[in-house]
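Moderator note: this is an archived Q&A kept for reference. The question asked for a predicted structure of one protein chain; the sequence and the answer are reproduced below.
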Amino acid sequence: MSNLSIKINLMRVPGASLLKLKGKREVKECLVIPVEDSGLYVGEKGVYLNLTAIEYREQKYSDSHFVKMSVEREVYDALTEEERNAIPIVGGLRPIIPKPMKAEGEMDIQDAEYVDDLPF
């Protein structure tokens, strides 16, 4: 199996919002996701989001898979076709393609910019 790059858009999780929250010293932009409405699961050691990666029949863009939120089988079976189609796609996977290694001592024109022989 090859290495994969995974990109997840957390704003696609149901109920997710960006809010500015004031802390003790400063205001920060925070991602807020209500647990009850989002499909998150609170376990003993953390809060989990179950996802499923499904391979595209025909590869779209450079992604090989799309990532959807998972629901338990009993819940999925009880959904209508419309509700099943409404389960959000939250991201995608693509293979990481390593750049070819250069022979020792070989330098690219772009690498010349990074040669550090300047006195400042």
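Archived answer notes: The CA atoms of residues 50 and 72 lie 9 Å apart.
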